[in-house]
Amino acid sequence: MAGNRTFTMLKPDAVEKGHIGAILDQINASGFRIVAMKLTQMTTADAETFYAVHKERPFFGELVEFMTRGPIVAAILEKENAVEDFRTLIGATNPEDAAEGTIRKKYAASVGENAVHGSDSDENAAIEGAFHFAGREMF
Ligand code: RTP
Ligand code: MG
Predict the structure, then answer these.
(1) Ligand 1 pocket test, candidate residues 114, 127, 131, 132, most atoms within 8 A of CB
(2) Where are the domains of the chain?
(3) What's the rounded mean pLDDT across residues 36-53?
(4) Looking at residue 3, what is its pLDDT?
């Protein structure tokens, strides 16, 4: 249902450090249902398209390099008020500013390598989910 889904990626740093299980556990314990999920790796073209909104920013090259350096876990999550509640659960972009107990506070190393992505609007959640998953992969 529109408004009840968000899209997330557990970023390469979180996968490299072995945090997949702990992060998914916290996501489930916070009331999100997994609608779609896979381990995948973005190509440079994928990451440039996914983050096109940031292409003029000074960190764009670094961001694309980081997001393509290893596998990610991509997932679609369902919950009432999913987009906003998930961004609360992950915390501020910079882990130094993230609230205690949030996923970024616990698992992120820096503003660039910040463990997890969360969509910033219902519209982008739908676009980002469709970027990674075919309809038959959503449950
Ligand atoms: P995300 O899209 O990954 O959920 O993160 P966000 O909304 O909290 O932050 P956004 O402004 O959309 O930035 C996207 C990602 O770019 C990297 N970044 N690096 N070096 C820097 O100053 C910087 N700023 C942003 C982060 O990986 C951020 O999550
Ligand atoms: Mg963002």
Answers:
(1) 114
(2) 5-137
(3) 98
(4) 54
What residues are designated binding site? 11, 59, 87, 93, 104, 114
Whether domain 5-137 has CATH 3.30.300.30: the reply is no
Task: Compute φ and ψ for 42, nearest 5 degrees.
Answer: -80, 140
Judge contact between 123 and 5, C-beta under 8 A: no
Does any ligand 1 atom lie closer than 6 A to the CB of residue 139? no
The token pair at 136 is 């038959």
For residue range 71-91, list pLDDT tens digits in order: 999 999 999 999 999 999 999
In three-state secondary structure terms, 137 is: helix
Is the pLDDT reported for residue 2 higher than 60? no
- Reduced to 3 states (helix: H, G, I; strand: E, B; else coil), residue 81 is coil
Q: How far apart are CA 130 and CA 122, in angstroms?
A: 12
Helix-strand-coil percent breakdown of the chain, rounded to 5? 45, 15, 35
